[in-house]
């Protein structure tokens, strides 16, 4: 009986209704218990991707060909969190990781304005859907290619942070990192000549420091 119920849920509970956002691009979409599917069933987008519940707005954006993310709250089958962007290619949802290159349009990316030069080999650095990659990394260089994820310890980096890293080797003080113990912290992000990232922490206030006083 349990198996029959599970199979029924996987199949949409035996029922489907037209999705509230249908049609998209002239195509009707239907909602089942676990997914949204096109009328011809050539495209099926699950409501939960990588352990993350997708909103209807995100589903519509995916169907329209947008690349979403990166999101830091995906989880593997073993329950481990991971960060990735997602898009639809060849009628399937695909995850894009910071070091993903095979799915990228390299020519289009290299037409962007570069954010700076890699400290490793002085090739230009560009933004990708899930990260920031040097031109050498885009071409598949595993040794000298610079790869920086857009999300580090739960904190999304923006283009200005990368410009600072490439120009100065360090960022301004960034707030909102989350440690492995789930504690928030602020830090400067550093990038050395070999492309290695590290943290520098602001000085802590001295314990027992005297409080400010004033005469009224």
Task: Briefly say what this structure is.
This protein is α+β, with helices and mostly antiparallel strands and about 220 residues long.
Please give a handful of descriptors for the protein shown.
216 residues; alpha+beta; 4-stranded antiparallel sheet; 17% helix
List strands and helices in order, with pairings.
Elements: H1 2-10, E1 17-18, E2 29-31, E3 35-38, E4 44-46, E5 48-49, E6 52-53, H2 56-63, E7 68-75, E8 81-89, E9 92-96, H3 106-110, E10 116-117, E11 124-127, E12 131-134, H4 135-138, E13 147-149, E14 151-152, E15 155-156, H5 159-168, E16 174-178, E17 184-191, E18 197-200
Antiparallel strand pairs: 1-2, 2-3, 3-4, 5-6, 7-8, 8-9, 10-11, 11-12, 12-13, 14-15, 16-17, 17-18
Structural class: alpha+beta
Rg over alpha carbons: 23 Å
For the record, give the distance between the C-alpha atoms at the N and C termini, rounded to a whole number.
79 Å
Mean pLDDT: 87
Series of H and E elements: HEEEEEEHEEEHEEEHEEEHEEE
Helix content: 10-25%
Strand residue percentage: 25-35%
Number of helices: 5
Q: Enumerate the strands of the largest sheet in spatial order, edge to edge or round the barrel.
A: 1-2-3-4
Largest sheet entry: 4 strands, antiparallel
The number of distinct structural domains comes to: 2
List segments where confidence is low: pLDDT < 50 over at least 5 consecutive residues. 207-216
What form results from the Cα inertia axes?
A: globular
How many individual β-strands? 18
Explain how this protein is built.
By secondary structure, the protein is of the alpha+beta class. It folds into two domains: 14-96, no CATH class; 106-200, no CATH class. Helix content is 17%, strand content 33%. It is built from five helices and 18 strands. The chain has helices spanning 2-10, 56-63, 106-110, 135-138, 159-168; strands at 17-18, 29-31, 35-38, 44-46, 48-49, 52-53, 68-75, 81-89, 92-96, 116-117, 124-127, 131-134, 147-149, 151-152, 155-156, 174-178, 184-191, 197-200. The strands form six sheets. The protein has a four-stranded antiparallel beta sheet, with no helix packed on it. The chain has a four-stranded antiparallel beta sheet with strand order 10-11-12-13. Strand 5 and strand 6 form a beta hairpin. The longest helix has 10 residues, at 159-168.
């Amino acid at each position: 009986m349990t198996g029959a119920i599970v199979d029924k849920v996987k199949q949409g509970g035996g029922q489907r209704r037209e999705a509230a956002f249908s049609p998209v691009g002239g195509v009707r979409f239907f909602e089942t218990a676990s997914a949204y599917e096109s009328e011809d069933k050539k495209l099926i987008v699950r409501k939960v991707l990588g352990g993350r519940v997708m909103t209807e707005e995100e589903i519509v954006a995916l169907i329209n060909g947008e690349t979403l993310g990166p999101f830091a709250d995906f989880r593997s089958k073993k329950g481990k969190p991971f960060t990735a962007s997602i898009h639809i290619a060849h009628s399937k949802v695909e995850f894009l990781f910071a070091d993903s290159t095979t799915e990228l349009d390299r020519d289009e990316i290299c037409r962007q304005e570069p954010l700076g030069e890699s400290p490793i080999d002085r090739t230009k650095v560009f933004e990708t859907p899930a990260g920031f990659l040097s031109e050498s990394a885009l071409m598949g260089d595993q040794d000298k290619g610079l790869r920086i994820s857009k999300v580090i310890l739960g904190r999304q980096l923006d283009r200005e942070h990368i410009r600072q890293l490439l120009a100065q080797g360090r960022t301004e003080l960034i707030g909102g990192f989350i440690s492995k113990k789930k504690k928030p912290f602020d830090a400067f992000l550093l990038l050395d000549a070999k492309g290695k990232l590290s943290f520098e922490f602001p000085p802590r206030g001295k314990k027992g420091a005297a409080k400010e006083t004033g005469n009224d």
